[in-house]
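#onboarding

Welcome to the new folks! Below is a worked example of what a typical request in this channel looks like: someone posts a single protein sequence, and someone else replies with the predicted structure as tokens. Don't worry about understanding the tokens yet, we'll cover that in week two.

Example request:
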Amino acid sequence: MHDAPPLPPPALTRPFAPAPSARREALTGATLRRHSVYAEAERSADLYKWLESERAGRDLGEAALIRWARLHWCHFVRACWLEHLRGVRYWSEIDRSDFGLLQGVEGGLVAEVVAMLRDGRENLDVILWARDAKAPMDELLRILEALDVNSRRLPHRLDL
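Example response:
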């Protein structure tokens, strides 16, 4: 699974932030390409609609798009948000100051929390896991507050 060091990494003892120069370079660099969560989601939903329509032998239309949104929207947004935090892809709908927040932060409790969030777990799931695993709750709460997953949700146009 995850090889975590026995002690939390030093990054947990200070606020979440990569080196200022790395974030500044990423935000102002000429190679930084902006991506749109909504545009990418639309392409993904259209592909899903096409594949499902081919499988059904007829055009499934809006029903397939609604099904994609119900099945995949939340996970899709979460994946984009994590890419943004890692500094992998800049998503224009996600808070600019969060870009690259996790750069240089690897291993330990942070990695466990990010893996659980990536897998679709919510804050309460993470807190319950930490309680059962006897993880340092104060550090965990600092991590969850810094990531602030609840304020990073994006509404779908269908308002599911």
